[in-house]
Amino acid sequence: MTSVSADIQSPAAAPAVVLTIAGSEATGGAGAQADLKTFQELGVFGIANLTCIVSFNPNDSWNHRFVPVDQQVIADQLEATTAAYGPSSGAPSVLDTVKIGMLGSPATISTVAAALDGGRFRNVVLDPVLICKGQEPGLALDTDQALKAQILPLATFVTPNHFEAESLSGLQITDVESLKAAAVRIHELSGAAVLAKGGVRLEGPDAVDVFYDGETLEVLRAEKVGEVAVSGAGCSLAAAVTAELAKGASPLEAARAAKDFVTASIRNRVASGAPFDALWQGGPRQAGAAPILLPSAGGCCAGCCGPCSQPPLHHG
């Protein structure tokens, strides 16, 4: 096939190209849908390769219904994306930044790990969605172990929520100091920059998250926007980190900018018939607010996949 790029007007500077490998979430608040909205708002060209289909079940307390995508279909998506935007594609912006969200099964993890191996990606942002409610416990445990063994060592940036940070670090997180310790421990295990999210889970007036990259330990704070987690906060935060890294930000700059973006998006939330709200990535722009504010005082990343008393939420 011959490219028609020469026949159309291109932007003065080609946007960075980023990929999310994640699940589809039917209500549009989380998963690949949230990632693509975030990418668009932050000025990068987003691509989504789907790993599973997740739909909430309104007849079962809004728990998840989880359907994995066939492994060959996942491999086909990755092959097509690499051919179109990879190093040998001739594209003006080479795809070298990827976000990993909900994978959902050991087989999918192996397929994705094989695609990531070899160092073709400069930035690998892992949003370590360890458990999807509605899955069988045995499958969830196998998935957790496979993710830690195969994907975590390939990550350059990890964004665990409260529950995931406890699982990855083996530590109980009850306050800011234990959140710091968990971030340090996850960095020691992975070598990646870590943004460990306390979000609304820790007591106090602020949503507190911790960044650590082996050198800089920084606590990021912002006043909580309500006490209930919103759908898609974790997805959007990791996607915003991905976008900022692709544009050349340092890991700390990306963390600060992403948290500002998510905090503003949570303030501009969208209500529905579901028992939870979704953040709106376009809200800050529609309100006339700058989407990125640096330096940052922090932000709210409401981790929502761990056991809690709130309605089950998914971020992938």
- Strand runs, count: 11
The CATH homologous superfamily name equals Ribokinase
How many domain modules? Answer: 1
How far is it from the N-terminal to the C-terminal residue, by CA?
Answer: 34 Å
**CATH architecture assignment:** 3-Layer(aba) Sandwich
Total number of helices: 9
Helix fraction bin: 25-40%
General shape: globular
Order of helices and strands: EHEEHEHEHEHHEEEHHEEH
Mean pLDDT: 85
- How would a crystallographer describe the biggest sheet? 9 strands, mixed
β content, as a range?
15-25%
**Strand order across the biggest sheet?**
3-2-1-4-5-6-7-8-9
CA radius of gyration: 18 Å
The helix-and-strand class reads: alpha/beta
Q: In CATH's first tier, which class applies? A: Alpha Beta
CATH topology: UDP-N-acetylmuramoyl-L-alanine:D-glutamate ligase
Low-confidence segments, given as residue ranges, are 290-316
How does this model look, in words?
By secondary structure, the protein is of the alpha/beta class. It has a single domain, classed as 3-Layer(aba) Sandwich (UDP-N-acetylmuramoyl-L-alanine:D-glutamate ligase). The chain has helices at 31-41, 71-85, 106-116, 137-151, 162-169, 176-190, 233-246, 251-267, 283-286; strands at 17-25, 45-57, 63-68, 97-100, 123-126, 157-158, 193-199, 206-212, 217-223, 269-270, 278-279. The strands form two sheets. A nine-stranded mixed sheet has the order 3-2-1-4-5-6-7-8-9, with helices on both faces. It has a two-stranded antiparallel sheet with strand order 10-11. Helix 1 (31-41) packs across helix 7, helix 2 runs parallel beside helix 3 (106-116) and helix 5 (162-169) packs across helix 6 (176-190). Residues 290-316 have low confidence and may be disordered.
